[in-house]
Write a structure and sequence with these properties.
Blueprint lengths: L1 E5 L6 H13 L3 E5 L10 H7 L9 E4 L2 E3 L2 H11 L10 H16 L2 H6 L9 H10 L1 H21 L10 H16 L5 H12 L1 H13 L15
Helix pairs in contact: 1-3, 1-8, 1-10, 4-8
Length: 228
Amino acid sequence: MLKLYIGNKNYSSWSMRPWVLMQHAGIAFEEVKLRFDSFSADSNFKQRLGRISPAGRVPVLLDGELVVWDTLAIAEYLAETFPDRQLWPQDARARARARSVCAEMHSGFTALRGACGMNVEARLPEVGALIWRDNSAVRADVARIVEMWQELLAEHGGPMLFGPFSIADAFYAPVVMRLRCFALPVPADIAAYMQRVCALPGVAAWIEGALAEQDFLPFEEPYRLARA
């Protein structure tokens, strides 16, 4: 059976992507969660992960002796291994667009990711309002995301970015968590898409797992003193 190593569900945006993808597609796997204690070289997290992956980051997918340690590489491997699950759009042009928007997420939106860390449990509208007021780069990232989502939803008719659920929706699910946590302003059609993403069984299961952790990591949360 496939084995997926992940970090804390409340905080680990990169872990969320393949986990949600596999859950939604009905791909059987064993979950191995490595709790974030710190990211120093001598931390338990790094020590355990270092025995599995040369990159020392989650997520990591194991298929027998094969180790795949990059989120986009994991998605591509799953799409090739399970072609019947149709994880990418079937149309070649749509598939190219989907790969493009996933690659944009993979390498971009650094202002949003840096200022608004993923936190499934938290609701921080006051912090989000200050970030929105003071950080023009975050506003630019959100504007680009809104533009992208609106264009794709209009072109493919929803309910997901390319019609049916695809890797693209899994890749942007953590963005939904960030926008929701910090209550960053989005148009009504984007808010509706976010609600549909949260209602997906795989995303709902991830949220449930994050809420059940009851784990507060101060180094992940510089904006509050305790978990609500």
